[in-house]
User: Which sequence fits this backbone?
């Protein structure tokens, strides 16, 4: 199903300050009906704050947000009726049963969907009579998404839905998100996993320090790097050189054939290139000449991680 | 309306499934009752153990000893010799040792036989007592004096010129547990509601439970109303259970109507819950909610007449004490249970609690935050 081009969410110059700290610095974007829109960035980039301003949970200091034409400050009740929210750190009533808590949340809305099919969709039917505290991390997260769907919302907000889950549970959740899209839901999803963003999102809004640094489809973002491959390695005898000489090493690496860009991170080197073979041959020759002992050499295609490093000089993941 | 019932039902389920909280919040007041009830339960009647050494061994001395048999809670045993008796007194086995001297009957007879004979001297009964146990020995001495006085009066054919008639105005026979149980119920109402509401709401806020609800169309007033309903049902029920146990297991008196009693339980529950909502609004973290609630409730425990009568509080604190909701709750519960007071006498207490209730709910409505 192709996304409808009409924007269902319009964020205009959203600003949020906490005292002296500005968490979100003028964020504007539009989300089209039926797409999965990703907010990708490291912790503290302002993803959650941005989402919560659109959900009406936080009041922006500047700017406006509209969902399906309803202003999130003036028509909050209307907005709440058409959105479903899964918060980053929701804890639910641990002593209630799955079915009970879904029924309770359903009662908060004027209109709600039947409980049983919702449980089936979220693969929770078997757990319907279990208490929330006995659910696994993945099941709890699926329950949180079920609660976000009880009012049959137009837009679903998922704030880091897979953080802390094991790979199996993440994959299950991805399938669920993709099925929601098939059913025509618009989804706004925040994550700090680039693979997740790449896999799920139609468009990605790359955020850092409260600002948008890029907004495009995943493939366009990577294409923007103008390189398609990366070579990673360490220099095992790097300790024999003084820190001053380390800079010389980087200079030397820049002269390797076809290298577009060199990144270093704590002794790891990344060379970006469009011609993997030429660069590799040239790199090995140079290493021999300079008596570098290369280790952990690997090649890969460029990812969103590289896009982020390229744009911010920092990694998505905090070390 | 559906949301209100669902939330109330959910809250009740959470309460009932949280066995530990349920168990301890009921056990605590019952434990207090057992403790204080059995230690001080019969505080008004001290039972006395005495020994008597009868050196006279006559009809008259046996009559004297028999007179003690009519004194309730005074058990008197005969000891063979004085040294033995003194030993047991010193060990603390006995409270008192009475020694009837040789020639007791003979001296007594001199008073009755020839009333004008000059050879009259008072009969001396010797009493040894343990001054480390003041209550028991004072009571014992009073009883011995009473009996000696009685015999004296009988012998000299004394007609009292003046008598004192004793009559309790309330015509009640109250024990310490009768004083204590209303206090414990008031304490329970205060701590369950004030501390309970503050801790739970603050913890829900911290864990994002409230934020999640805020993102739905649920209204804050619906949420608060359901909280109040569920807590009123549960905490009210707990108070009633404690009252019923106190009444039928410990024999605590309930002289007033159960309806009035229940009315004050409800009023107290609401008033303290409202104060709990204020604390929940003020506390930034669940960790700070506990100490804030403790800071308010702990002094109230001691000033509000839970364990000691309010009259025992120093004069300069009295105006403060008279403002505290707990003072009025303990007074009301006590008057209803002990004295059997009804609404006609208790309306100032109801007014005070109602005032707290309204004021606190207005303040909490302004201070309540979802996050």
Assistant:
């Amino acid at each position: 199903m192709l996304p409808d081009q009409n924007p269902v969410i319009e964020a205009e110059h959203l600003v949020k300050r906490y005292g002296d700290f500005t968490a979100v610095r003028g964020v504007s974007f539009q989300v089209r009906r039926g797409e999965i829109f990703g907010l990708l960035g490291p912790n503290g980039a302002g993803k959650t704050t941005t989402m919560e301003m659109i959900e009406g949970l936080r009041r922006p200091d500047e700017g406006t947000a509209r969902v399906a034409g309803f202003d999130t400050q003036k028509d909050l009740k209307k907005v709440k009726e058409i959105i479903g929210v899964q918060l980053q750190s929701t804890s639910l009533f641990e002593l209630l049963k799955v079915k009970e808590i879904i029924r309770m949340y359903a009662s908060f809305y004027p209109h709600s969907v039947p409980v049983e099919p919702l449980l089936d969709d979220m693969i929770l039917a078997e757990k319907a009579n279990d208490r929330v505290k006995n659910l696994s991390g993945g099941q709890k997260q699926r329950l949180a998404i079920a609660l976000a769907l009880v009012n049959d919302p137009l837009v679903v907000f998922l704030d880091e839905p897979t953080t802390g889950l094991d790979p199996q549970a993440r994959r299950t959740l991805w399938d669920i998100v993709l099925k929601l899209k098939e059913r025509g839901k618009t989804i706004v999803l925040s994550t700090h996993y680039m693979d997740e963003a790449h896999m799920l999102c139609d468009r990605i809004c790359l955020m850092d320090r409260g600002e948008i640094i890029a907004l495009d489809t995943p493939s366009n973002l990577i294409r923007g790097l103008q390189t398609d491959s990366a070579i990673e390695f360490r220099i095992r005898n790097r300790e024999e050189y003084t820190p001053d000489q380390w800079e010389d090493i980087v200079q030397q690496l820049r002269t390797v054939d076809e290298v577009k860009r060199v990144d270093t991170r704590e002794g790891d080197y990344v060379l970006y290139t469009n011609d993997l073979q030429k660069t590799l041959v040239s790199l090995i020759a140079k290493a021999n000449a300079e008596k570098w002992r290369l280790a952990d050499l690997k090649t890969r295609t460029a990812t969103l991680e590289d896009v982020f490093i390229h744009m911010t000089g920092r990694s998505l993941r905090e070390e | 309306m559906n949301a209100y019932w669902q939330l109330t039902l959910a809250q009740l389920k959470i309460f009932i499934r949280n066995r530990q909280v349920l168990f301890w919040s009921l056990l605590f007041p019952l434990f207090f009752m057992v403790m204080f009830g059995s230690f001080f339960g019969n505080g008004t009647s001290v039972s006395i153990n005495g020994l008597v050494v009868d050196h006279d061994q006559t009809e008259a001395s046996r009559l004297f000893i028999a007179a003690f048999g009519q004194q309730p809670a005074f058990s008197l045993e005969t000891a063979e010799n004085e040294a033995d008796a003194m030993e047991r007194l010193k060990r603390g086995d006995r409270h008192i040792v009475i020694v009837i001297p040789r020639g007791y009957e003979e001296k007594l007879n001199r008073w009755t036989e020839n009333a004008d004979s000059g050879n009259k001297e008072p009969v001396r009964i010797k009493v040894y007592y343990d001054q480390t146990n003041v209550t028991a020995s004072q009571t014992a001495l009073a009883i011995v004096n009473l009996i000696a006085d009685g015999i004296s009066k009988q012998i000299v054919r004394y007609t009292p010129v003046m008598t004192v008639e004793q009559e309790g105005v309330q015509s009640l026979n109250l024990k310490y547990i009768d004083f204590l149980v209303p206090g414990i119920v008031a304490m329970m109402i205060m701590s369950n509601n004030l501390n309970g509401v503050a801790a739970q709401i603050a913890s829900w806020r911290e864990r994002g439970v409230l934020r999640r609800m805020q993102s739905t169309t649920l209204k804050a007033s619906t949420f608060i109303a359901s909280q109040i309903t569920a807590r009123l049902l549960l905490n009210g029920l707990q108070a009633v259970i404690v009252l019923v146990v106190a009444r039928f297991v410990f024999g605590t008196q309930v002289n007033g109507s159960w309806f009035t009693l229940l009315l004050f339980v409800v009023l107290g529950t609401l008033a303290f819950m409202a104060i709990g909502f204020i604390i929940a609004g003020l506390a930034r973290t669940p960790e700070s909610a506990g100490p804030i609630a403790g800071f308010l409730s702990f002094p109230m425990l001691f000033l509000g007449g839970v364990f000691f009568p309010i009259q025992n509080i120093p004069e300069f604190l009295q105006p403060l004490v008279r403002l505290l909701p707990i003072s009025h709750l303990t007074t009301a519960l006590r008057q209803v249970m002990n004295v059997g007071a009804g609404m006609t006498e208790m309306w100032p207490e109801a007014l005070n609690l109602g005032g707290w209730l309204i004021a606190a709910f207005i303040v909490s409505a302004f201070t309540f935050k979802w996050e």
User: Anything to note?
Assistant: The mean pLDDT of chain A is 89.
